[in-house]
Amino acid sequence: MKDEENLITAIDFLKKGELVAIPTETVYGLAANAFDADAVAKIFEAKNRPTFDPLIVHTYSIEQAKTFVKYFPEKAEILANKFWAGALTLLLPKKDIIPDLVTAGLETVAVRIPNHTLTLELLRQLDFPLAAPSANPFGYISPTTAQHVRNQLGNKIAYILDGGASKIGIESTIVGFENDEITIYRLGGVSVEAIEALVGNVNVNTHSTSNPNAPGMLASHYAPRKPFLVGKFEDLLREFAHLKVNQIAVLAFGAYLKEIPLENQFNLSPQKDLKEAAQNLFAGMRTLDNLDVEVIFAELLPEEGLGRAINDRLRRASVR
Ligand code: TXA
Ligand code: MG
Q1: Tell me, what's the pLDDT at 68?
Q2: For site-directed labelling of 50, which of 14, 30, 99, 222 has its Cα 20 to 30 A away?
């Protein structure tokens, strides 16, 4: 079996303290032994990631999580039971076994059980959890296929475990617990509505600060290299009337933009399905970024469910 051989290769490298890209249902991660600070340091180097930006620790069970987390607040346990394995990351009080480098010196560690068969099997066969940020150079668009990882980090990492395209397509929702308050620090694959249905009202605090708690909160993130402009298509067309139509690319949702050549457009979801749009988001941004154009236009999606998390990515990718 190909998958089994690939798993063995991945396990070998991880045990040796090397980096392996792993598939998850949200985006691909760049993984290392979370208990080994030297291995974790390689992640920051490969990604060019500032060390003030902490990593998520991936595990296969609540039981394993309890070996490196002091305790689960009651509401954290409720959320974990409902949404794990899944696109939810919980900020929990860490035990000393987690190196400070993983948490950037914070007292909490970000923890998640990813919902991907191959990666769950990998985690089960290891006797340590995996620290893994998204497998992209810092600040660039997150990868949702093995090829995306290969294109950008291929020569910097030991191995890429190919598990197909990520089914959700945007990162996990990050949730923290202070006293009796619940705060969402990053919008993601589990919607605010779904969380509130379970635990009541939560705060949403995803705004960037000078010293961000979650640098997914940094104002500029998930960004293509080409100028990415978010606004009403009508206004953008007027503002960029000096460009030829073939110098403009469009990230469409539903209808295409009739003024722009079709080959310059990527449709997130012709049927206006938010789930499909999330799946296609990062691949679409990459496709347009690789075209020979001057600018990329995008319009915000409906601000509900996954639309909120998608819009968050669009705003942060935007140049203004
Ligand atoms: O879906 C995901 O979450 C993917 C897959 C691979 O699991 N991972 C991911 O990792 O998106 P990354 O490193 O790109 O984003 C992790 C975010 C960062 O914004 C980081 O600042 C935040 O989580 N974070 C990690 N530990 C934290 C902590 N202790 N307190 C606050 N924020 C934390
Ligand atoms: Mg990331």
Answers
A1: 98
A2: 14
CA of residue 1 to ligand 1 center, whole Å: 33
Cα–Cα distances in Å, from 127 out to 56, 65, 113?
17, 12, 15
Report the length, in residues, of the chain. Answer: 320
DSSP symbol at 262: G
- What Å distances lie between residue 241 and 134, 244, 255, 294, CA to CA? 37, 8, 21, 12
Is any atom of ligand 1 closer than 6 Å to the C-beta of 110?
yes
Are 114 and 88 in contact, with CB atoms under 8 Å apart?
Answer: no
As a whole-number percent, the residues of the chain with pLDDT over 70 amount to 95
Give, in degrees to the nearest 5, the angle at Cα 27 between 21 and 28.
5
Taking the C-alpha atoms of residue 251 and residue 317, their distance in angstroms, rounded to an integer, is: 12
The Cα-based distances of 318 to 9, 286, 296, 298 in angstroms read 39, 14, 9, 9
Quick one: which of 48, 82, 64 has its CA closest to 175? Answer: 82
250 token code pair: 């469009």
**34-53 pLDDT, tens per residue?**
999 999 999 999 999 999 99
d(CA 170, CA 284): 12
Pocket test for ligand 1, best of 26, 53, 56, 312 (most atoms within 8 A of CB): 56
